[in-house]
Amino acid sequence: MSAYLATEDHGEDHDGRPASANSYRSPRQRLNRGRKDVGVIGQAGWSSSVINLLNTIVGAGVLAMPLALSRMGITLGVLVILWAGITAGFGLYLQTRCARYLERGSASFSALSQITYPNAAVIFDAAIAIKCFGVGVSYLIIIGDLMPGVIQGFSDSAANIGFMVDRQFWVTAFMIIVIPLSFLRRLDSLKYTSVIALISIGYLVILVFAHFVKGDTMQGRGAIRVVRWESAVATLSSFPVIVFAYTCHQNMFSILNEINNNSHFRTTGVVIASVGIAAFIYILVAITGYLSFGNEVAGNIVGMYAPSISSTIGKAAIVVLVMFSYPLQVHPCRASVDAVLKWRPMKRSESPQSSPSRLASLPPSVKSGPSSRGDGMGETRFAAITTAIIVLSYVVAMTVSSLEKVLAYVGSTGSTSISFILPGLFYYKISSPDSPHHQRLMKEDDDEEDVPGSEDEGLLGGGGLKGGLWRKTLLRRLSLALAIYGCVVMVTCLITNTIFVVATH
User: How far apart are CA 213 and CA 299, in angstroms?
Assistant: First the structure.
C-alpha cells in the first residue's frame, strides 16, 4: 500500500512516544537506524495478523468441501486440499520475501510492479480490483438470498410481512453495518469483526461435526468413495473450488506493512498458522460432511440439514461471516483502484532498474507526501474511491441475483494471478543476481550477519547469503515453478468453467 510522510527514527516509536524496552527492533532495523520507514507500521500484533488473514482465507466456500470430496474421493480430496494449501502458502511466503526489497510499510503489488514490470502494473492492479470487487458483490448477494430464509426459520409469521422476505431490503439493511467498516484505513482495525466472523466459522464446523457424531443423516446416506473418484471430469469441476478456497494474497502486503514485528520468523509464522488452521477446517468439514451424506451431499451442506433452530443459526452464521468479510475485499480493491488511477506509462530511461536506491525505485504514490495518510491517499481521494466501490457493489447486488458466470472467470484469472503467478514472477525477477535491488539487499544481509540476535532465519531463508546461496537458488527456481503452475491452473480452470458453468446455462 502507499505511504504517508516518512519520519526518521530518533529513539521514538512512530506515534511519537519514546521507545520502550518492550518495543521490538530487528537487527536489520538497528543496523539501519537512520533509514526512513514509510506507511502505517508496527501497530498490529501477530495474533491479529493471523486472525485477519485467516478470515480472508476461510469463507462460505468451506461448505462446498464435502461435495468436492464426493467427486474426488476421500484420499485424493484430502491430498488436493493439502496441496492447495502448500502452494497458496508458498505464494504468501514469496510475498514476505518480496516485501524485504521495499521500504518498510510500503509493500504492495503496485510497488513491486513498478520495480519489476512497471508497464504491466496497471494490468495487475486492475485484475486485483475486479477480483475483489466481484467477491464483495457476491457476499452481498449471499446476504440477500439467505436472510429471508433465516427470518422465516425463526418465525413462520415473517412470511406475511412483505419486506422481511425481500432480498433487496436485507441487502440495504446490512449495508448500514458494512459501510462504516469499509471506511477503516487499517486492516488491523478489522481484527474484532474478524474474530466474530471466525466464531461464525467455528459454529458451522461444530454444526457439521455434531450432525456427523449424532448420525441423524445416515438413513438416506449415499455410497462413500475412499480411494476411487467419480470421474476425471467431475474431479476437475471441483478442483477450482479447493484451489480458490485459500485465496487471501490480496491482503498479505497490508498485513506485512502493519505487523509490529516483521522479522522473517514472525511473518513466516503468520503464513503457516493461517494456512494450517484453514487446511484443518477444510479437511474436518469435508470429511465429516461427506461421511454424513455420502455421494448425496450437495454444494451447501448446511442447507441439507432438517429445518431446526440449529440449522437456521447456521445460515445466520454464514450471513455474519460474509458480512464481516466484505470490508476485507474493499480494502485491497480500494488500494488497487488507487494504483490504477495513478498509473502512468514508464519510459525506458526511467526504468527503476537504473537505481539501486530503495526510495528511488518506488512509484510516486509510495513516496511520502504531507497530505496522505497511512495508505498514501488523501482524505478526499480515500472517501471518493471507497464510496464508489460501495455504491457500485450495492447497485450490482440489488440488480443481479447471480454472478456465477462472471465470478467463475474472475476467479480463474484474478485468483490464480495474485496467488501463484504474480508472487512467483515478482520474486524471480527481483531476486535475480543481476538485479540492483538484490545486490543491495545482499550487502545489507552481509552486514546483518555481524548483528547478534537475528530472527531472520527460517524457511529457505537461512542466515546469511554466503552460507545459503543454494537456498536462494532453490527458492528462485521454485518461485518460477509456482508461476508456471499458476498458468496451468488458470488454463485448467478456464476450460473447466467453460464446460461446467457456461454449458449448463
Answer: 21
Give the N- to C-terminal CA distance of the chain in Å, as an integer. 40
Task: Give yes or no for a contact between 39 and 359, defined as CB atoms under 8 angstroms apart.
Answer: no
**CA separation for the pair 170, 178 (Å, rounded):** 12
Q: Would you mind telling me the total number of residues written for the chain in this entry?
A: 505
pLDDT tens digits for range 303-354: 888 888 998 999 999 999 999 999 999 999 999 999 888 877 766 555 554 4
Query: Cell 467453460 appears where?
Result: 498
Q: Which cell is 171 given? A: 441487502
Nearest to 332 by CA among 428, 425, 415: 415
Q: How far apart are CA 376 and CA 385, in angstroms?
A: 13
Nearest to 373 by CA among 116, 183, 214, 139: 183
Give CA–CA dist 269/255, Å, rounded.
Answer: 13
Helices (H), 155-231: 167-182, 191-214
Sign of the Cα torsion 73, 208, 84, 337 reads positive
Largest CA distance in the chain: 75
Residue 477 burial class via C-beta count within 10 angstroms: exposed 0-12, middle 13-18, buried 19 and up: exposed
206-210 contacts, C-beta under 8 A, 24 or more apart: 207/302, 207/305, 207/310, 207/311, 207/313, 207/314, 208/66, 208/284, 208/285, 208/288, 208/289, 208/292, 208/301, 208/302, 209/284, 209/285, 209/288, 210/310
Mean pLDDT of 290-296: 91
Grid cell 511473518 — which residue? 267
What Å distances lie between residue 41 and 104, 190, 475, CA to CA? 7, 16, 27
- DSSP, collapsed to helix, strand or coil, labels residue 12 as strand
- Grid cell, residue 307, equals 429445518
Q: How confident is the model at residue 29 (pLDDT cuts 50, 70, 90)?
A: very low
Dist CA 299 CA 63 (whole Å): 7
Of the listed ranges 134-148, 354-368, 436-450, the least confidently predicted one is 354-368
Confidence of residue 175 (pLDDT cuts 50, 70, 90): very high
Beta carbons of 112 and 135 less than 8 angstroms apart: no
Helices (H), 215-308: 232-244, 252-258, 264-293
pTM: 0.80
Cell digits of residue 54? 485467516
User: From CA 442, how far away is CA 466, in angstroms rounded?
Assistant: 9
Burial 448-457 (b: 16+ CB within 10 A, else e): beeeeebebe
